[in-house]
Amino acid sequence: YWINGTRFGLESAIDADVGPNSLQSYQLSYSEHFSLMAEYKAEGKNAPELVLEKPLDREQQSSHLLIFTAVEGGDPVQTGTTQIRVKVTDANDNPPVFSQDVYKVSLRENSPPGTFVLKVKATDQDEGISAEITYSFKTLRGIGNMFVLDHQSGEIKSNDPIDFEISSSYTISIEAKDGGGMTGECKIILDIVDENDNAPEVVFTSVSSSITEDAEPGTVIALFKTHDKDLGENGEVTCLIKEKVPFRIESSANNYYKLVTDGSPQLQ
Questions:
Q1: What is the pLDDT at residue 267?
Q2: What is the mean pLDDT of residues 168-195?
Q3: Residue 218 backbone zone (phi > 0: left; psi -120 to 50: alpha; other: beta)
């Protein structure tokens, strides 16, 4: 890594003439990155030097072609030119960058282990080992061993059965690291799609052991509640009596019901 003002010595030109016809000066083709410096002393000229005026960026321009000219003092003026090709070698000055800062994906509940989830991709503008990228989970907090990540390809798969009732979503942080140690990060928001995989539960909270045959219609026989671990439409419970009996079900509150008489319970 070179800073502005860094000097690079150049080979001096040779002129067989002497006196005013000898080598007088040097010239350099225009470059915003380089300038030419040559100090003159009584005993002769110092070797010319190439001076860095602006930082080099290999990712923007990997090489620079300069024309270096030596000028003598004769009439007509004679010149000699040569090319200077500056090759900019890579420095690890760019971190890996993911194609997206945030990925949003969904996965169905009960997907078996080994189900493909997502493949993340990061790129690095450097070259060589500085551009070699490996992937890893930045943290396992909140995901445990639920997912596995291919460190070379960035492919993520499920590792355990997916259960919506345990967790309806996961936030996963992925880190990309290049060969020089620079890192980049992205976040994955994974929503689990609920499956109707839970049967409704019925719990009786109160039950009458007997009822008189002349009980009034609407007499409460039992109180019960229902619960379904699924959500949304999959968790909506409807209660009904299939048999033809002198009873009916009344809803008293959210998921709470009453079993009451519906007319005379007298047996015919």
A1: 46
A2: 93
A3: left
